[in-house]
Design brief:
- This protein is α+β, with helices and mostly antiparallel strands and 145 residues long.
- The chain has 2 domains: 6-85, Orthogonal Bundle (Arc Repressor Mutant, subunit A), CATH 1.10.10; 91-144, 2-Layer Sandwich (Dna Ligase, domain 1), CATH 3.30.1490.190.
- 44% of the residues lie in helices and 17% in strands.
- It has helices spanning 6-15, 22-32, 40-50, 56-68, 111-121, 137-144, and strands at residues 38-39, 72-75, 83-86, 91-96, 102-106, 132-134.
- The strands form 2 sheets. A 3-stranded antiparallel sheet has the order 1-3-2. Strands 5-4-6 form a 3-stranded mixed sheet, with no helix packed on it.
- The longest helix has 13 residues, at 56-68.
- 17% of the residues are buried.
Length: 145
């Protein structure tokens, strides 16, 4: 779904027989208007700022619906709540255990690892769902310097 616009995402909903409501438009607006990955709570707060009549539970249901339709996905970056992002840019996350920095890597960076795990262990893993943890370049440099 690379390069997908809000209108194209709404067309997916219509194609699947889903109603396009102002609440759904508001959720997409919050997600597309942020450069950050947002928790469900943050999405709900953003929606509430422009649509105070939309209940928090409605936002949660919309996020679940969007995830089932492949428009958004959630990821567990740290020990806190999941964060959501649009699936238009499929990527993975590396989280530094020391500074909590997050590095986004393209999907193709995991191709080799997926192949090895499948070939050697018969295991297929859901790479976008969880972050890989370790130490970032800057923290490693501080340790060795």
């Amino acid at each position: 779904m690379a390069g997908t616009t809000v209108d194209e995402m709404l067309a997916v909903l219509r194609r699947d027989g889903d109603r396009v409501t102002s609440a759904k438009r508001a959720v997409l607006g919050v997600l597309t208007g942020s450069d950050e990955h947002l928790t469900a709570e943050q999405v709900a707060e953003g929606v509430h700022a422009t649509h105070p009549d939309v209940h928090r539970s409605t936002v949660y249901r919309i996020l679940d619906n969007f995830e089932r339709r492949g428009l958004v996905s959630h990821v567990h970056l740290r020990h806190g709540p999941s964060v959501y992002h649009l699936t238009a840019d499929q990527h993975h996350h590396l989280v530094c255990e020391q500074c909590d920095g997050v590095v986004e890597v393209p999907d193709k960076a995991m191709t080799g690892l997926r192949k090895v795990l499948l070939r050697d262990y018969g295991f297929s893993f859901d790479t976008p769902h969880f972050a890989l943890t370790g130490r970032c370049r800057a923290c490693r440099a501080r340790e060795s310097g």
